[in-house]
Design a protein that fits this description.
100 residues; mainly alpha; 5 helices; globular; nucleus
């Protein structure tokens, strides 16, 4: 949780290198896919907020950031309801983040 909120502050206030942002993004997606169902809901929400903030700031920098919509639909097609819920939370947070 602390790492997520610290990274959120860094992403918001400072310009990070493109490759670093992509690496963090990919790590978060993989982490949520593997460990997301085991996490407390507030930790999942914090990681999703960081993921969506990275996506928002990188939207025009690299097309790979735009793949989050497709990748979140992969969560929706998983067998577990926990993965489905994570996919919905990602899409919901992405819309909220883009509207700010």
């Amino acid at each position: 949780m602390l790492a997520s909120s610290s990274l959120l502050k860094q992403v918001t206030e400072h310009s990070l290198a493109l490759q670093l942002r992509l690496d963090i993004r990919n790590y978060l997606i993989n982490y949520l896919a593997k460990r997301g169902p085991e996490l407390q809901s507030f930790v999942t929400a914090s990681l999703i907020q960081l993921l969506c903030r990275l996506t928002k700031f990188g939207w025009f920098d690299d097309d790979r950031f735009r793949d989050l919509v497709k990748e979140s639909t992969n969560f929706l097609s998983q067998a577990t309801s926990d993965h489905y819920a994570i996919g919905l939370k990602i899409l919901n947070q992405l819309v909220s983040e883009m509207n700010q």
